Amino acid sequence: MTTWIGLDGDDTLWHSERHFVDAQRLYNELLSDYIDTSELHDRLMRTERRNLEIFGYGVKGFTLSLVETAIEMTDGSIGGADVQRIIDLGKEVLQHPVELLDGVAEGIDGLLTAGHRLVIITKGDLLHQETKVAQSGLADVVDGVEIVAEKDAQTYQNALGRHGIDSADFTMVGNSVRSDVLPVLEIGGRAIHIEYEYTWDHEVVSEHDRPEGYEVATSFADVPTLVSRE
Amino acid sequence: MTTWIGLDGDDTLWHSERHFVDAQRLYNELLSDYIDTSELHDRLMRTERRNLEIFGYGVKGFTLSLVETAIEMTDGSIGGADVQRIIDLGKEVLQHPVELLDGVAEGIDGLLTAGHRLVIITKGDLLHQETKVAQSGLADVVDGVEIVAEKDAQTYQNALGRHGIDSADFTMVGNSVRSDVLPVLEIGGRAIHIEYEYTWDHEVVSEHDRPEGYEVATSFADVPTLVSRE
After folding, report:
1. pTM, to two decimals
2. Helix or strand (DSSP H, E) at A170
């Protein structure tokens, strides 16, 4: 049983991907006035992937990729008012109120009652993530918030170092095998993967034998029990 | 004489604002095919100010504001190819190689020789700032890097807390009176203001009597002498 619990933010503590999915549905509708949108999703993915190393994660980069893909697929014929509508879709994602996932309030209570110390480790736009932490009501019950540009073994090592946490005493909880599980196992920590209804395509890890040292939960409410069993 | 020296990034350690100025010059040229651009700068400032609490600081928000202002000022008649050119201006700012300001290498050497400990405290897009720190070659000589969404008294207090720094033992060095000087004086630290050739309009502080506890330098090379004199 580890003392320190790392908590991913988007789609672990609060809903995020569903707001991107909603935005993309409206984006599809908007572009269907111009083009056959059957390839739109794939083209958007390609743009996002190309832009990831310049923009990093987060809604602002996503919005710029939406605009680029729309220009590209309409051969530049998209009108200015529609470009503004696309930017407004991004702004709606940025301003969407934070909604905790089912089971989170209960699971957090259980972890605190059991005496664990909590640290949120999340990636995305700095201001947006800070705003979500503040709105979540969780800022007062966690010992720290780490907003990182990428979740790899090095960033976890640095984040744990800043709080003086030994990786053997650390369990990460998150919805992404690639970002929340594998790099934590790599540095000698443990992990709990919570499956979420949507997984952003960039985060999908191809099927493989599940490595040792991580458990799977279907709800955050199960986390305290899984941690106590370790 | 304080032990810990905080270093602002953009326009203190490395050039930044000049890249925004270059981008805006090209933006003006591009839009002069559509409109009289005499009011363009003011309109862009207004858009940036309106978007600041949604986007925060950084190049991605700046780029989205460039696009919005262009759509607004051309009544939506701007073509898709030109919107893409505007996005590309933003990408150029994001990808511009880091150039240290004159006197920085020398000043950093002086501070290290005198036994000071250094921490970079900078604001902007997370990935972009991390990339600039890495490219600057300064990552190995500083004790920490804090990338923050806003530079107010609270964020300085938090940043100092994370490194166990007493504010009485801290001097901040930066080019912005509003972001690098006033909040640091407020928490009981000291500050050195280095004047930069351009000051982003949002950062201009109206003329007032200069408060106690801060010095002014014209070059980073003067910083070690000013710190030793405190």
Report:
1. 0.91
2. strand A170-174
